Amino acid sequence: MSRPAVEALLDVIRDWGADRLFTCPGSTEAAVLDALVVRKDVELVLTTHEGVAVSMADGLARATRRPSVAYLHANVGLTNGLSNLYAAQLAYSPVVVLNGIKASSIQARQGFTTAARMRDLVHQYVKSDWQSLTTEAIGEDVNRAFRTAVTEPAGPVWVGLAQDLLESTAEVPVPDVAPFRFDPRAAPSASAVRTAVDLLAAAGRPVLVAGSEVARAGALDRLVRLSEQLGAPVLHEDRRGFERPGFPTDHPHFRGQYEVGHPLVREADLLVFLGARLFHEFEPARVPPLPAGVPIVHSHTDPKYIGMTYGVDAALVGDQGLVIEALSAALPAAPPRAVPPALPTPPRRPSVPGAALRPADVVDVVTESLRGAVIVGDATTAGGILQQRAHQHSGDDYFVSSSGSLGWGMGAALGIAMGLPDRRVAAVLGDGVFQFGMPALWSAARSDLPVTYVVMNNQSYAAVGAALRRFGGEAVERQHYPGVDIAGPRIAEVSSAFGVPGRRVDTLSELRESLEASRRADHPTLVEVMTDPTEFGP
Amino acid sequence: MSRPAVEALLDVIRDWGADRLFTCPGSTEAAVLDALVVRKDVELVLTTHEGVAVSMADGLARATRRPSVAYLHANVGLTNGLSNLYAAQLAYSPVVVLNGIKASSIQARQGFTTAARMRDLVHQYVKSDWQSLTTEAIGEDVNRAFRTAVTEPAGPVWVGLAQDLLESTAEVPVPDVAPFRFDPRAAPSASAVRTAVDLLAAAGRPVLVAGSEVARAGALDRLVRLSEQLGAPVLHEDRRGFERPGFPTDHPHFRGQYEVGHPLVREADLLVFLGARLFHEFEPARVPPLPAGVPIVHSHTDPKYIGMTYGVDAALVGDQGLVIEALSAALPAAPPRAVPPALPTPPRRPSVPGAALRPADVVDVVTESLRGAVIVGDATTAGGILQQRAHQHSGDDYFVSSSGSLGWGMGAALGIAMGLPDRRVAAVLGDGVFQFGMPALWSAARSDLPVTYVVMNNQSYAAVGAALRRFGGEAVERQHYPGVDIAGPRIAEVSSAFGVPGRRVDTLSELRESLEASRRADHPTLVEVMTDPTEFGP
């Protein structure tokens, strides 16, 4: 079949099941916008910043496990979207980035909003980057982009589409996408499975570490079975690599988050990392992050992460669902070991009534009041507490980004809500984060998505304060922390001015009341909760 | 002299006369922040988004014609700042970008917020990109960065500073910067000047086109003299390349902006482009942008732009002040020609009282009420009218960016106000633009700078609407323009919530009143003026 290029482009998008196109458009996208006046099989989702277009597409892809499309404009639109594209990359999110580019002659002359090497800008954040060279190639190029995005390990791809090629009225081939939509998963080799199973069978105190890739593969149930078959406790992966829960926090085998100092890790005689990174380090470790002398089984969808820093005793490359199935099937029948009992939760420092709210108390109220909601975390210093306390039964109950790309959560929450239409979504944000994601409020206001934004406003870049504390220099000596105080904005009012009703609260009871009200709302809302600015970090 | 690396770094910054450091910091900047607890010779200017840090530094550099410093954090901070760095590049703005990078071991392991090739991300936007390899090299590397930034053609540079190198307590050499601060200007060769002067002397109807580089060189007075010496009319450069005025709009020889259809261009027998681009094209021209058969003299500081697309009859590479001086000195004594009279201004379509405000009327009120203020333009579709009507006596009276980087003006206005402390500054913005620059409101609220933000709110991406009109497809047929309607935000309220008092106005008299009040304020204010959403483009 042949069709004008822009129709071929939209046909390919539709045939890959991506029925939305997230964009903040410019003149280079006129032909696509014009086609969408008539076509209804692909929905134009307008955003007011490219960071929002990318994070919404990313959120939708994470929630649906299907490819999504962000359409960016020129070099400036691409660079505006890069930080959130980095987030998509770390989550193996198959976001197809289409990028409108000025007409060929304008590119050659370094005209308005061009870059001599567009592909260099995006290269590090995508699995492939290609600029279509002819009108005829557009359908094929975009089809290949989708195929590349979804092939495991999945991830973002980029296709540049010059305005003159896209606006051509020439009829171009429309590929039949069906033969490209194969099962892209890999299973580990039988010998690798045998090596891992031998280690598991020989271990007396194995600990499983559930990584984000388990959730992306939809394999929590299989990991539950493996854990029960073995009688092995399960930890979530280290916080810095965590993207989503790989094991139910309400399962009796769940024992918290991986840390080398965790009592189970200290006692373990085998560590099995499934779909986790070893590690996504924040700074040079003061103590080695793996216990000395303990054998390591490491499985990951992405072979580049196996043996990247630490050698392993068994390596299992492949889809985490298939890896876990293979381990379960190959394990010799044996009575399950007894899982060591959970340690008692350490007592909480009691709150002082009337004092500034502590982040931990706020997180407790949020996770209790919004129980059942999907939590999207984008709070730098409160993120650790949130991760410990958020209820995570399924792999879709909690989403964060390990990218450090502030503001990602505001758009991602909307994409996730689109992808999980039966769920309420709560995005828990810091006040610093909020300022990076504000244009998402426009998109929220235009939607009727059941999203609650909770902004924990400690009026600080608390992470910078924590870094100055660790640095231990003049700032600590004089108790003066430059670059930390960002007090001022009345965030709830900003939100209301965008059309997302906002309320600022100073007490836990007001917070509860606001969250309850948000559960009944049929549109996005925002609660700004004032927290203690002196409590740096978790 | 030897000092710890971070002190050497700050010494070099100070010795180059850059006494402010614009940043949105993270943990990699702890050592620098800590040093600034004690040191007062470099001021930390905190921002809440890297785009703001870069645009403030750019504005300051443009206004002072001196280098400035933006300190970004990790890969995500860099990518957040790239669009505004592109703006700085097009303006030849010597912004020294320092970039905190994770410790060396974290980079190698692809840890948190790292990029395998940081330099590739920024390469296209800077004159040099280098990551310091040793602690000892930091002083030298940053000194070389300043030297490179200010050497003509000037422009941004980038230096990556890994946390472990910067935090080393080793004493490192502090370079004496004096021998590096030479006069970096080039003058054109004598033979090139002779060729150009021969063409000028032979021409009967020469037209001078004053580019932005004339203003950057501070050479408006010299261009006035040349124009009077010749009796030649002067046009500003084409709108798409325009960054700042190269000729006083109140001089009797000023005749508007370059267009190939301009009556003087049609009549000219010589065109002399001084510090302008030929051209910074927006889209393929429907008619050639140069008149056939007319000799061209083209001068630019940046040799890459001479002969990039169109051949020339004389080329003058160098600083525009030196170029113009050389032409003036070499011109044979001759009575000046008579400058053709200005054409009468075409009559304005009268406004209908009570109807939606027309952008042209709003611009008239803004430019009249704020006469004497520096205008910073960042309004996509109203930009053309603003440029025509803003009073531009000096090269510092009007600043825009030719980058298409929306939101640049909100931070740039603050940097320009810092650089021109005796001037009031008004930033004229579109409502789409506003959403890209919002974090600048935080910086504005923290300052006592005399900045007035005027947001022309037509509730539209009018440029997208204009593109759909030019495309002439189904959107026009059905009068349905997708991707255009961005109505909703109450911009004045957003501003007030940030601590920048905002007011929404619907009439020209309210607008006048608000602008008058803003002139008396000792802090930034914002006026949101509702304009006609149906009037796409100028």
Largest sheet of chain A: 6 strands, parallel
Percentage of helical residues of chain A? 25-40%
CATH class designation of the largest domain in chain A: Alpha Beta
Name the assembly state.
homodimer
- Note the beta-strand portion of chain A: 15-25%
Task: Provide mean pLDDT of chain A, rounded.
Answer: 96
CATH homologous superfamily name of the largest domain in chain A?
Answer: Thiamin diphosphate (ThDP)-binding fold, Pyr/PP domains
What is the CATH architecture annotation of the largest domain in chain A? 3-Layer(aba) Sandwich
Strand order of the largest sheet of chain A: 3-2-4-5-7-6
Major interchain interface with per-chain residue totals: A-B, 95 and 95 residues
- The rounded Rg of chain A comes to 24 Å
Spans of at least 5 consecutive residues with low confidence of chain A: none
What is the total tally of β strands of chain A? 20
What's the number of domains of chain A? Answer: 3
Helix-and-strand structural type of chain A: alpha/beta
CATH topology of the largest domain in chain A: Rossmann fold
Description of the structure:
Chains A, B: GO terms for molecular function: acetolactate synthase activity; flavin adenine dinucleotide binding; magnesium ion binding; thiamine pyrophosphate binding. Chains A, B: InterPro entries: DHS-like_NAD/FAD-binding_dom, THDP-binding, Thiamin_PyroP_enz_cen_dom, Thiamin_PyroP_enz_TPP-bd_dom, TPP_enz, TPP_enzyme_TPP-bd. Chains A, B: Residues 193-327 form the Thiamine pyrophosphate enzyme central domain. Chains A, B: Residues 391-529 form the Thiamine pyrophosphate enzyme TPP-binding domain. Chains A, B: Keywords: Thiamine pyrophosphate. Two copies of one chain form a homodimer. Chain A has a six-stranded parallel beta sheet with strand order 3-2-4-5-7-6, sandwiched between helices. In chain A, helix 2 links the parallel strand 2 and strand 3. By secondary structure, chain A is of the alpha/beta class. The first copy, chain A, starts with a strand and ends in an 8-residue tail after the last strand. Chain A contains 22 helices and 20 strands. The model of chain A has no long low-confidence stretch (mean pLDDT 96). Chain A folds into three domains: 2-180, Rossmann fold; 190-330, TPP-binding domain (Rossmann fold, 3-Layer(aba) Sandwich); 359-530, Thiamin diphosphate (ThDP)-binding fold, Pyr/PP domains (Rossmann fold). In chain A, helix 3 packs across helix 16 (408-419), helix 9 packs across helix 13 and helix 11 (220-230) packs parallel to helix 13.
